[in-house]
Design a protein that fits this description.
263 residues; disordered C terminus; Spore Coat Polysaccharide Biosynthesis Protein SpsA, Chain A; ten-stranded mixed beta sheet
């Protein structure tokens, strides 16, 4: 399934994998703290395409009602979640780069601070990855800043706490550089900056993409393996300290079970 809506050649293409949790998607995409209302860019400067995997009819209805571009990706049950996840990520870059210089993945379990995409894009250039300043709730081990603002739904999210905290930590125009040491075996790295969303210039993808669909020989996942190869190949891995996003980690198929741990 594919809806052939016209591309307008934006600066950035966002892609988002989507299943059946429309309340999370509505919050993360269209909501007050959603991706689209907080880019800081003119509508002509970015576009978004959805990758549908294990997607029910009500999701397609929501996509059509919002006039969104979308493409269906066949989910291979025998391969497992991570294999299909990285298949979708690779698909997103394939969809985006014919139309834009930059591609950026987003997800339906995020909230976004004002100007998040503008503050990634202003640092973008060839041979560079610009990561967001990521906040996570700490319900799982994380390398990122920890504050728990709840699940990303209209009913559960701590809006005031999120805004107050983002305003307290943002550092306008500040960019930091990854000082980690590439180590293919997954050993001690130093200060890693990998964080989704991240802005990826086409020059980086052309040289180092696609991502592995399986763990590599050292048990490293496709995204981390990709960043390792980029760093070893001389790509600048950076983080924008005013491009801020919150990732609750509420994978939509498990969000009811997860709900009780977001306090």
């Amino acid at each position: 399934m594919y809806n052939n809506k016209k591309w307008e050649n934006p600066k950035v293409v966002l892609y988002c994998q989507i299943g059946g949790a429309i309340d999370m998607a509505e919050f993360a995409i269209n909501g007050k703290y959603g991706a689209l209302k907080n880019t800081g860019l003119d509508d002509s400067e970015f576009d978004i395409v959805f990758i549908c995997w294990k997607t029910p009819k009500h999701t397609y209805d929501w996509l059509d009602e919002n006039n969104f571009k979308y493409v269906e990706m066949q989910y291979d049950e025998g391969k497992g979640f991570l294999w299909n996840l990285y298949k979708g990520w690779n698909f997103g870059y394939e969809l985006g780069y014919p139309h834009a210089e930059y591609v950026c993945p987003i997800a339906t379990d995020h909230a976004f601070h004002k100007n998040w995409l503008k503050n990634l894009l202003k640092h973008g250039k060839e041979n560079r990855i610009v990561n967001c300043k990521l906040i996570e709730p700490g319900t799982l081990p994380t390398l990122h800043t920890v504050r728990n603002f709840g699940l990303t739904t209209h009913e559960d999210f701590n809006e005031n706490g999120f805004i107050e905290f983002c305003e307290s930590i943002e550092k306008p125009n500040e960019l930091i550089f990854d000082d980690s040491i590439p180590n293919a075996t997954g050993g001690k790295y130093g200060h890693r900056l990998d964080a989704m969303p991240f802005l990826l210039h086409k020059s980086v993808w052309d040289k180092f993409g696609p991502m592995l669909l399986t763990l590599d020989q050292y048990g490293i996942t496709g995204d981390t393996n990709f960043f390792n190869r980029c760093k070893a190949g001389g790509v600048e891995i950076t983080k924008s300290l005013d491009g801020i996003s919150y990732h609750c980690g509420g994978i939509e198929t498990k969000r009811n079970q997860n709900k009780g741990i977001y306090t």
